[in-house]
Amino acid sequence: MTQTTFTSQQMLARLVGFDTISTKSNLELIHWVRDYLDGYGIASTLIHDDTKNKANLHAVIGPEDKPGVVLSGHTDVVPVEGQAWDSDPFSLREHDGLLYARGTCDMKGFIAVALAKLPDIVARHKAGKLAAPVHFAFSYDEELGCLGAHSLADTIASLPVKPQLCVVGEPTLMKPITGHKGICDYDCTVHGKEAHSSLAPYAVNAVEAAAELIAHVKSIARRMQSEGPFNKAFDPPFTTLHTGLMHGGTALNIVPNRCDFSFEIRNIPEVDPEALAEEIRQYAFKTLEPRMKDIDPKTGFEFRAAAKVQAFDIANDHPMVDLVLQLSGANEAAKVSFATEAGIFQNKGVPTVVCGPGSIAQAHKPNEFIAQEQLLKCEHFLDRLFGGLKAAA
Ligand SMILES: [Zn+2]
Known about the structure:
By secondary structure, this protein is an alpha+beta fold. The protein has helices at 8-16, 27-38, 104-116, 118-126, 149-157, 206-227, 273-295, 319-328, 342-346, 372-388, and strands at 44-48, 55-61, 69-74, 93-95, 98-100, 134-139, 165-168, 177-180, 182-191, 195-196, 240-248, 254-255, 258-267, 300-309, 312-313, 334-336, 352-354, 369-371. It folds into two domains: 8-180 and 311-388, 3-Layer(aba) Sandwich (Aminopeptidase), CATH 3.40.630.10; 182-309, Alpha-Beta Plaits (2-Layer Sandwich), CATH 3.30.70.360. The protein is built from ten helices and 18 strands. The protein is elongated and about 85 Å long.
């Protein structure tokens, strides 16, 4: 067992070197982290997906009989294809205090700082100065709709002693974030019946049927905007719905037999997106389909649930929010529009705050970067966190 030490920047250079674009396996990175932890005698639990090509990693340092603090991050990154990078996206480049590579801000920066702190956490523990355990919780497939975090949060929430706090280190410039909207995406295929367009009344036009349902989605969007529910912490302060993709038809003189479209619901925490989705489905099945099936029973709507991220909301006056506010030095907590894994942990009963280095403005872009100053801020935050931990919340 070799104990290796890294600065945060060295650790980040190591982590961005693993190409963990969400479509690929993250196991090389996960195994490397497991071996690094093993060097310090820390055991890791790997939670694989069904393909066994991806895994979450969970590890605990310190007294497991006390409610700990979870440091949570996703190991996958978004693709680089079609983006104009000035340097190799998988090799860390430093220029003028900025560190460039895919995943630097979203969000290997936070994971790097946490991992680089390992020797310090272990030393604190050995000296009896770690009042509560530190959990590392690193997930896969966040960028595909927070797929990995569910089994990871299940594992953590079912521990004999539940953690007192989870910090999700998505890039917030080290400002505490206490809420975001949820996302519920659906793909819909309309099966129609083909015919020469001169015989349109004897056919089922899949594009027109899709258009009628899309108009209904729009009417719900208008209702949400005019009637609420409203939550002023968000911009816009209500649940939004929109159809972003539609494909159908091959020629103007053919009644199209198929149309595909995708719509999304971005819900404030007060709104159940499943209920809205059910309202849309019922309109399709009860109002639109009967007329279609009168002509051909094989026609109709088919819905497939796509990405889903739970909304996240923790009270701004929660003691754990207070703690993170103090430690981060920020003035106030805020809600944001981008989605994270926080709602998954929060809904499992682990008080959760999003707070991490770097800016979301750099995420998912070519020449993604994080400022060295942000890594430093995160180091200080974790130092104060480990030093300020109480045995219980
Ligand atoms: Zn992210």
